[in-house]
Amino acid sequence: MTSATSATSAIEIDLVSDTSTRPSRDMLARMMAAETGDEQRGEDPTVLRLCEQIAGLLGMEDALFLPSGTMCNQIAFLVHCRPGDEIIAAENAHVFGSEGAGASALAGAQFHTIATPSGIFDAAAVAAHIRAPRMRRPRSRVISVEQTTNRGGGAIWPVEELAAIVALAREHSLAAHMDGARLFNAVVAAKTPAKIFTAGFDSAWVDLSKGLGCPVGGVLAGSKDFIAEAWHWKHRLGGAMRQSGILAGAGLYALDHNVERLAEDHANARLFADIVRGLDGVTVSPENVVTNILFLELDERLEAAAIATALKEHGVRIGVEGPRRMRVVTHLDVTRDGVERAGRAFAETVQTMLG
Ligand SMILES: *Cc1c(COP(=O)(O)O)cnc(C)c1O
């Protein structure tokens, strides 16, 4: 066994990301039992069922199964944009900073970003970023929002704000796109049906491989015309699969079993925040943890990398986001007890370091 492997296997409580989950036995059983066919020919019944369910939940006409959330975003931009177009999004959006500049590399679009620590912005901020139509200007084309916000600490977009943004998009003939990687976290935390959040959006998607606990996949939804165009890009990018019903089976299992339980992840994130809040040298952000993500801002006496190394000794892993910034993400493979142990280990480590 290499040292890298043994270091990984010693981690019992992994709070780095909600992608750290493994498919459960029951999920695997559902995958193995899935009816399959050739997805590219529209003959995989399990994929068709999953797409139909997600389209229904999001109030959209149609949906498309894709290998990842990143591909959902990129295909949406490829359909909405022509080269030289501009996408308005938060400065800390996943589409801007965490997708290998895909929108510019693939769709030829550039970003016009809005500075907002929570990842949420209002219609007035969008209006200030819409370009007047002039020959020498980039053409504003898409408004992209992230529900919930990842770098913004799991914040939830209020329905009214989304509606105002959709109205503005209509007024200026822009497309409204929702990166719904964690849309179901918002659904459960705000007790609001998904289709209420996505109302009026031209495209929206959900990730199956985040809090829902699937190994692979995202589902992109929109109008029939939008999805027909998205199919072309799915083929071009090599995202068209064959008997992918085994993967869609995991998604159907997750819709049945792993949505309502997201409330436990939210309670666990609040528990972690409650344990470490008030510690000397540490600020919990956001102040009110609403879903499954929180950040720990450290003062000048502490170093994120050193804390992460010390936590490994406790079998705990949390994310290093910067020299003095750490991220904690709860998910279905960490228990309440595990989160409590991780919180205590973090508190002890900080107290020891501050002597
Ligand atoms: C994870 C994530 C993505 C990308 O999803 P993948 O399935 O990892 O490709 C996009 N947007 C947000 C907000 C995310 O958190």
UniProtKB/TrEMBL annotation:
SUPFAM superfamilies, per database record: PLP-dependent transferases
Family (UniProt): Belongs to the threonine aldolase family.
Subunit relationships: Homotetramer.
InterPro entries to which the protein is assigned, alphabetical: ArAA_b-elim_lyase/Thr_aldolase, Low_specificity_L-TA-like, PyrdxlP-dep_Trfase, PyrdxlP-dep_Trfase_major, PyrdxlP-dep_Trfase_small
Domain of life: Bacteria
Signal sequence annotation: none
Protein name (Swiss-Prot/TrEMBL): Threonine aldolase
UniProt-listed Pfam families: Beta_elim_lyase
Lineage, top ranks: Bacteria, Pseudomonadati, Pseudomonadota, Alphaproteobacteria, Hyphomicrobiales
Gene3D superfamilies in UniProt: Aspartate Aminotransferase, domain 1, Type I PLP-dependent aspartate aminotransferase-like (Major domain)
UniProt keyword list: Lyase, Pyridoxal phosphate
UniProt keyword Transcription, yes or no: no
Protein's organism: Rhodopseudomonas julia
Cofactor(s) needed: pyridoxal 5'-phosphate
Any GO molecular function: threonine aldolase activity
EC number: 4.1.2.5
Domain Aromatic amino acid beta-eliminating lyase/threonine aldolase: 14-296
